[in-house]
Amino acid sequence: MGAVARGLGVIAVAMVVSAVPANAQEDSPVRETGMTEWEVRPNDNTALVDIQLSITNTGPATIDRYGVHLPMEPDTVDVDLDGTAVDVSLGDEDGFTVVEWDLGQPLVDGATQTWHIKLQFDSAPPRTDFSEGPRITNGYVAVPIWAWGFDDATLVVRVPQRMAPRLGVLVPTVDAVGWSVFTARDAGAFSDVLVGAADGTDGTGKAIAVGDTTLTIQAWSDDPQWGAQVGVFAARALPTLAAWTSTPWDGDEVTIRETATPEVEGWGGWNDPTDNVISVGEEFDAALWTHELSHNWFNHAEFTEPWLIEGLAQAVTVMLADDLDVPDARTAPARPPRMHQGLLWWDVVLSGAGTDVLTDPDAWYATTNDLYDTSHYVIDAIATEIGEDAFREVVGMTLREESAWGTLGTPVATDEADWREFLDLAERTGGSATARDLLLTHVATDAGPELRRRDRAVAAFDELAGEPMGVPAAVRTQMHHWRFDEVDTAIARARTTRADIEDLATRAADLGLPAPDLSDTWDTGSFDRLDTEIGGWSELFLAVEDVQSAAAAAELPRPVPAIDPADDDPQHMAQVVSGMRTAVTQLAAAEEALAAATGPLADAGMIGTDPDALRERARAALAEGDVGVVATASRQLGELAEGATTRGLLRIGGVVLAGLAALALVVTSVVWLLRRRRRDLAPAAPEPSV
Length: 690
Description:
The protein is of the alpha+beta class and about 700 residues long. It contains 20 helices and 20 strands. It has helices at about 225-245, 260-265, 285-295, 305-320, 320-325, 345-355, 360-385, 390-400, 420-430, 435-440, 450-465, 475-480, 485-510, 520-525, 525-555, 570-595, 600-605, 610-625, 625-640, 645-680, and strands spanning about 30-40, 45-55, 65-70, 75-80, 85, 90-95, 95-105, 110-120, 135, 140-145, 150-160, 165, 175, 180-185, 190-195, 205-210, 215-220, 255-260, 270, 275-280. The strands form 4 sheets. An 8-stranded mixed beta sheet has the order 5-4-8-2-1-11-14-13, with no helix packed on it.
């Protein structure tokens, strides 16, 4: 929302006074009944009004002159009684036009006259005063609508359906020729503004690219200067606002539409996120434009309370005044206005003031001024205290949904920010020492008990933050939502959970394992998740203890599974322990088989091998958690032990056979030698004689 004519932005309430005739007030002796028909003609840039007004004299005095108030000065006015026209005069009363005429025949007590009044209001040019007329073009209409007939009135308003018109809470019907028809009964005090637009202002628009977003600037066809200025300014302002907030604007395509003067609609500007349309007054007001564009960041999608939305928009407008060359940015008041209720009662205060807006518009303006000035004062005071850089960080964290109680960069805020979250960020991130008292004095005036309860919770939080491991996410989340009873419970549980984690670390050290790393869950998870992970590690450690007990029973070295404390896959860790259990079983069986392989034959079978070295290798691998080496060495040991006797028997048998063979060879050789020697010793045969 932007600034209305007197410098503020307020809820869209028509800024008009009651359609009370000049001499017919609530205590008047005149009774009025009326039938009022409006026909708004965009093609002709005009609005026609036809009024049938019956007046009855209910008092003793005779009435010879009558008149009614008008919402603005008419271009033509005709008054007649039963077809006989009378002369009229136009005057001014409290800033409103009054049309008066002589009754001709005085109206005596109990008598009734029915007058026919015809009015024509032509569209006023851009940037003209409210009293000079409505805005009526083929693209846009903004027409103050009144009904005449103080005591009993019927109102009918017709406007082409293509204008997509709205008139307060009235719901239109559509007639046979395509006109929207609004009807109101008992409309004696009716006063509202008909607004509507047909596919953009005058059906046209100029599209410009700003980053990844397209802006469509829609200006009156008779006011091209406005469109050019807004387009150039928006192209500069939106990137500047994105840079200031450190939050990119990722909005959809947006239309910026020139709207009627503030007095006609009651607003200088309006940013409606439901249809991505920003309606801005036709005055050349860069401060107003900045304010409205900033609502792409400061809106009800991000903040729950109007005072935060409007106070931030105005404060940022002032801070960017130099960067955007906004000389008319209105600074915060030196001291806040006196208000009977805090800013949390924004809607209630406006609603109460709205009941008098028709009879006392100055009081309405004063109330809205107080709301906006006080909001700006509070935001500006905090920003001035902590400095613009810290203030920008506070605003940026809010827009990024980062909590003052969370680890930096860890979003834990899941809803729109309110005064509580703003206070947390102002104190915890910005370092403000005054925000608490400012908000208690001007915003949440009855929050004293809640703030004192918060003080105790903050002290407990800070005490926990100074202890080992700091504050878990489960506590920070409760602090963020101001659930202080839950904070106490969560802190107590945090200490219990931390003791369980420390016990895990002790058990891990006893088992020769590194301590489990639960820091990520501690920082971002819940207590239930922590309990689940602690339980998982505890079960794992029981399994490791079982493996190590089995190893001790087999007089094996203590096995230490190769478990990574950062591994969060329970199935994988269970497989590691299961593999270690298998390794212990394999090595124990191998050593048992080796011990059973005794005797000469087994000893003979072991000749040429080194079972002790193989066993030491397997034991060392078991201690280091290398189950692959243990499996290989255990298999080799088992095979060596199981085949030792057979190998010994084969080896001894071979030796015996070899010995027998050698003996046989020796005997054979001796026999052969003995035989040869006998031949050598026999007498020679005599030679034959000749």
